[in-house]
Amino acid sequence: MSDKRRIIIDTDPGQDDAVAILLALASEELEVLGITAVAGNVPLTLTERNARIICDVAGRTDVPVFAGCHHPMTRKLVTAEEVHGKTGLDGMEIFEPKTPLQDMHGVDFILQSLAEHEPGSVTLCPLGPLTNLGEAIARDAATMQRAAEIVLMGGAYFEVGNVTPAAEFNIYVDPEAAAHVFSSGIKTTVMPLDVTHKILTTPERIAAFGALGNTCGAAIVGMTSFYERFDRHKYKQDGAPLHDPCVIAYLLEPGIFQGRFINVEIETRSTLTRGMTVADWWGVTNRLPNATFMGDADADRFFALLTRTISRLP
Fold first, then answer.
1. Percentage of the chain with pLDDT > 90?
2. Fewer C-beta within 10 Å: the chain N or C terminus?
């Protein structure tokens, strides 16, 4: 039996999703059982293709990729082309990937994988809206309890929202699915904007990927150079946050991050605060803790890990 940590990446690539996938595929500690695509940053037809493109770039056409849900559980899809470009991966070459799209639905793959492996041996890593996981919980909550942990990128507390004044994009797109996840009782760790906004690209950090001399490093330079233009303008900062790689970095080096085990509830009813992660950081309610909510990160240590690991790729 492999001593690697088995994971399933659930994703809506997205340049930062792509970097997270590359980090996972490059790592020696993780076994990526499969990648499930979901609609989010761009529609599903693009996110599933983008996931397969990244597998090609990494030289990992063996990794199975599945298309999941093409719209949120109860709402119309909201996308983010203004951030990621029309393809979702603007900044790198887009081509028809050799990595095949599997016939099975992504939700079925998640449930089948959890059923086939021993309980507590598969970690779920959602990088986008939580639709696929929400649907899986709604369909078969008992099988989902076999997951070791859910480590997700989403939400915010001190940083509040990036798509509305109150909500982070991934949670905003499908708050009902997020509510399913946070009320599921499955061990959950959250990488919110409070952490990801401390993991900023800089010219020096981007240049380090170019200096690796590999195809994947060059792809990261292209993608991050395009991707950061939106956040540099929006936040008036020198770089852009690399949100999704925080999930994979946590699995590889959890000491990079610091947080608290607290109660997190998802707002689904209000039009004003739809998708807000109501995080009881200060313990002012009597609601039971249900998630480890990260609040700080060591950016230098994160980028050292990322650059070092990506150097192993083609």
1. 86
2. N
